[in-house]
Amino acid sequence: MAAAPVRFLPLLLPLLLPLLLLLVAAAADSGVTYDGRSLIISGRRRLLISTSIHYPRSVPAMWPKLVAEAKDGGADCIETYVFWNGHETAPGEYYFEDRFDLVRFAKVVKDAGLYLMLRIGPFVAAEWNFGGVPVWLHYIPGAVFRTNNEPFKSHMKSFTTKIVDMMKRERFFASQGGHIILAQIENEYGDTEQAYGADGKAYAMWAASMALAQNTGVPWIMCQQYDAPEHVINTCNSFYCDQFKTNSPTKPKIWTENWPGWFQTFGESNPHRPPEDVAFSVARFFQKGGSVQNYYVYHGGTNFGRTTGGPFITTSYDYDAPIDEYGLTRLPKWAHLRDLHKSIKLCEHSLLYGNLTSLSLGTKQEADVYTDHSGGCVAFLANIDPENDTVVTFRSRQYDLPAWSVSILPDCKNAVFNTAKVQSQTLMVDMVPETLQSTKPDRWSIFREKTGIWDKNDFIRNGFVDHINTTKDSTDYLWHTTSFNVDRSYPTNGNRELLSIDSKGHAVHAFLNNELIGSAYGNGSKSSFNVHMPIKLKPGKNEIALLSMTVGLQNAGPHYEWVGAGLTSVNISGMKNGSIDLSSNNWAYKIGLEGEHYGLFKPDQGNNQRWSPQSEPPKGQPLTWYKVNVDVPQGDDPVGIDMQSMGKGLAWLNGNAIGRYWPRTSSSDDRCTPSCNYRGPFNPSKCRTGCGKPTQRWYHVPRSWFHPSGNTLVVFEEQGGDPTKITFSRRVATKVCSFVSENYPSIDLESWDKSISDDGKDTAKVQLSCPKGKNISSVKFASFGDPSGTCRSYQQGRCHHPSSLSVVEKACLNINSCTVSLSDEGFGKDLCPGVAKTLAIEADCS
Ligand SMILES: *[C@@H]1O[C@H](CO)[C@@H](O)[C@H](O)[C@H]1NC(C)=O
Ligand SMILES: *[C@@H]1O[C@H](CO)[C@@H](O)[C@H](O)[C@H]1NC(C)=O
Ligand SMILES: *[C@@H]1O[C@H](CO)[C@@H](O)[C@H](O)[C@H]1NC(C)=O
Ligand SMILES: *[C@@H]1O[C@H](CO)[C@@H](O)[C@H](O)[C@H]1NC(C)=O
Ligand SMILES: *[C@@H]1O[C@H](CO)[C@@H](O)[C@H](O)[C@H]1NC(C)=O
Ligand SMILES: *[C@@H]1O[C@H](CO)[C@@H](O)[C@H](O)[C@H]1NC(C)=O
Ligand SMILES: *[C@@H]1O[C@H](CO)[C@@H](O)[C@H](O)[C@H]1NC(C)=O
């Protein structure tokens, strides 16, 4: 696959017209190639910025805008996994509609003029239910996932072939003149290979040759596959990949997953990765010879329906990504990275064709300098000190390098970008509530589930069964019921009796004699739990109904498909005369809910007789389905539904599955920080917010799911909540902030030309811009001097120009966007000579 680059091709084109067609045909045949430095596309080495956007995590109506935002952000390429269990719903039965319309998504990318990296997997992990593998495959006799196992390999091969053939039919592979430049087989298998012994290695090598035999004409990659064979490129997934080396000097250094944030877990606080650190990691990667870098994820989106992996991964897959869950660019992260990409692109030729010299500029400071034949010179200056800022001397000039930062010098002279100097404004977004608004008086209907077995039981068993083996994930819910007798003479002694439950996971609601007596669930990534609930027995027959639930199936780890879930032991203890072990009782089972059985969430079930109209819906009532007519929230801002008043359950709009909701609160002792120090190695527990608050309060409802009128919201509530307090909220940018210092680069990356630029030291500027249709309506804070703090909590320092506010108001008030230069002239005479000045502004948009 690694053919020699055809570098002279562009020069020949105008000269040798008759040969043109032949040459083009030859280039097309060879497709994308690579050498030890980079991919080679159309005969040219390329530096590529790639961005993950997973098609089923948004809706088709959002795709063009998301892809355009990625392109504006500097992306050359969109990356996506292919989601096997979304496509092969039963063996040989395929679904490629709506959110799963892979060809349509690929066309959106193509129409935007971007490349596509297709990570077929088809095991993907990805915080996706069962790691993307269809649950039915686990029940094919003899199937064992991700090892040298015939049933698994044969299904994996037919699905991979199916996808490759679809792409070939559309002529999407670069070798066919299309835009797919890379494909991936398997996923992070090298990290688990050992757990499968010799069969692991055999399977990995089989996967590689199966992929190569697909004849796509573009290179295959395997991420985290340390032993990838000769013609497959092993790539890196991590927060940092600058130190990564491929397993052969003939393979380029590719970073398939740079995590710009992290996923959320119900019941935990929310992780954030600072933009300074993301930029630092990317700059370091290109400084150290990297050539393709992909953000996993650039837009995370939403785990609609029951697609989320688990246990307990939230319905939101926001990921603190450069584009937020709702499709809005996240600032400053998105813009800071855009500026980084522009700066790196200014260096592309020298990086790819130049020779490298590495210099030490101090104990923790280093320069990597690339010089090429045409006289080009680029330098990356890094300060990898996790604490201290410094000034380094490079080619007899001085450069200010904050701790944990890289400066990019596309001409070995001017630092056009520093990863720690964030020039972009911060955009603050709020969820602005609206009422559900419908004016119809009879707008609510309810259906109450029976507690325990509805209709007839599915089977009776002495003792417990595995939950997943029983539901086969056709539903989250599995009822277990049993009963026992309490002697009339038994002293009901001050309620010291306890119902004790052991479960492998993930959650349970316990009912005694039709009353909800408690709920329990695993915590963090631990699905199992043990719980003791105080109960009040009655004389005679007592009935216990336990609703066991899954909350997203395991998505990774060796042998993950065998983890299982469900109850393992149930006792009544604390009784005067000992305890009752109910574990080996006769238990009656029922898979799923009655409302699910009738499809009450479907639009055509709106008039189902089981719905009973209510003027006021009941509150605090478990096991209740609610149906309500709702109006479309005004305007075109993205919409989230606020479920804070509810317990746990599922929600649908017009039959579209919004997903699991669960405003489970994170423990308040969790480590949250008011502000985040970007310096030093990042890990997901480092910069967290939302301690003591619901992990996820709002759930994305795509605009395209609303009709102009006649919208139906259906909610199934398990525990009890107040549905009258459910509201739609519009996601709206309400505020902009900026914090820029004099020593920030002041070069306009759009117009900068290194061949004509002198030392042009312009003054640094602040640029503020409200979203389209809004103006800067008030300036809440402005200080030119040495202010500190973060947006919404800036503070004046010792040096403050008294005219700060009036200068900013004059430049910015009542217009959509403005620029303020950090010159002393604008602000009056220099009140504090020798102090490097900063301008901090907080302003409202309306
Ligand atoms: C890079 O180094 C090699 C070996 O020293 C030399 O042959 C080549 O001309 C150099 N290339 C450039 C662009 O300086
Ligand atoms: C940062 O500087 C301080 C003061 O000079 C020093 O004590 C500390 O060790 C430095 N930190 C690192 C990581 O070098
Ligand atoms: C204790 O009393 C309860 C309630 O009458 C009865 O169901 C149970 O079997 C008794 N347990 C023992 C160990 O005798
Ligand atoms: C129930 O009792 C049995 C026997 O004492 C014990 O092994 C088991 O752990 C108990 N289960 C629970 C859920 O407490
Ligand atoms: C969940 O785990 C966290 C961290 O280990 C702990 O602080 C918290 O109290 C636990 N919460 C529950 C409900 O067990
Ligand atoms: C599920 O059923 C399979 C047989 O189909 C069995 O091998 C496996 O052990 C069961 N899993 C659990 C967790 O009980
Ligand atoms: C914003 O300002 C412009 C120009 O000053 C004005 O034409 C426009 O009506 C204003 N828009 C809003 C939403 O206030």
TrEMBL record:
Domain of life, per the record?
Answer: Eukaryota
Could you provide one GO biological process annotation from this protein's UniProt record?
Answer: galactose catabolic process
- Give GO cellular component annotations, separated by semicolons: apoplast; plant-type cell wall; vacuole
Quote the CDD domains the UniProt record gives: Gal_Rha_Lectin_BGal
Leader sequence range is 1-27
Q: Which InterPro entries match?
A: BetaGal_gal-bd, Galactose-bd-like_sf, GH, GHD, Gly_Hdrlase_35_cat, Glycoside_Hdrlase_35, Lectin_gal-bd_dom, Lectin_gal-bd_sf
Domain (SUEL-type lectin) spans 760-846
Q: What is its main location?
A: secreted
Q: Spell out the family assignment given in the record's similarity comment.
A: Belongs to the glycosyl hydrolase 35 family.
Tell me what this protein is called. Answer: beta-galactosidase
Q: What is the scientific name of the source organism?
A: Brachypodium distachyon
